[in-house]
Write a structure and sequence with these properties.
Helix content is 32%, strand content 22%. The protein starts with a strand and ends with a helix. Bound molecules: zinc ion.
Length: 82
């Protein structure tokens, strides 16, 4: 039996009826759950404000973008002050 990672409600999922990447909704807390694995089925909680999980590659890309933006802003500030 699969349990919702958010509220631990039991979710009736037949591993022969779901595919990897399929999105399910928890009937109890209405969280969106992505099927990350079948045989056995494993569900990942999908949440807007969760930046943990295992998306380390995406985080590194975001950090690089932020650094570039900061440099541009600093240059503009110096010009305005002097
Ligand atoms: Zn739930």
């Amino acid at each position: 039996m699969i349990r919702c990672p958010e509220c631990s409600t039991e979710i009736d999922v037949d591993e022969d009826e779901v595919e990897e990447g399929e999105i399910l909704s928890c009937p109890e807390c209405e969280s969106e759950l992505e099927v990350s694995q079948t045989h056995p089925v494993h569900l990942n909680l999908i949440s807007d404000d969760l930046d943990e999980e295992d998306d380390e590659e995406d985080d590194e890309e975001d950090e690089e973008d932020e650094e570039e933006d900061e440099e541009e802003e600093d240059e503009e500030d110096d010009k305005d002050e002097e």
